Amino acid sequence: MIGFVRGILAEKGNGYIVIDVSGIGYEIFVPANSGAYMSDEGQEVMVHTAMMVREDDISLYGFSRKGELDAFRKLITVSGVGAKAAVSILSSFTLEQLQQAIVFEDSKALTKANGIGKKTAERIVLELKDKFTADSMDSSAADQQTVSETGAGPSDGRSEAVSALIALGYTRGEATSALAGVKETDLTAEEYIKLALKNLF
Length: 201
Hints:
By secondary structure, the protein is an alpha+beta fold.
């Protein structure tokens, strides 16, 4: 098992990179939004890797953050979600956006990933919502992006409500858990906050 690969970025292709490690080039499939993929050729990069072994192929998949690797491993346990589909999802969302979409049971957001249909998105939410708990959300990362920055993931109202509840003194885990219990969609931030507060008392 190869846990990580560190070396010089020698080449970038469509969905993959080649890392030169002491003269050996490792071809690794990576999400399009990963730090390694967005680096310039000649720079040193490191990716956490998962090795996928099939009868006729051995492939490496790499991720800039361990949380993304963990999410990849969870995604491929879902029926109908292979390694390429999991990478497509992680190319379309930041780790935080993916976690929020699953915690909030927002399967519609997941269909924005290339190759992910409605039924597959619903299976992802159904099978992983207990594994992507609010407390597991990686909110401390410096590269965290809000949903409103990309237009993907849960509605802006939910994101604003999370921020507002944190400002009121609740933890991020408490805020996201309370909002996860709000099944209504397309509400304003104020409406989400009112419903979430009922779940906090």
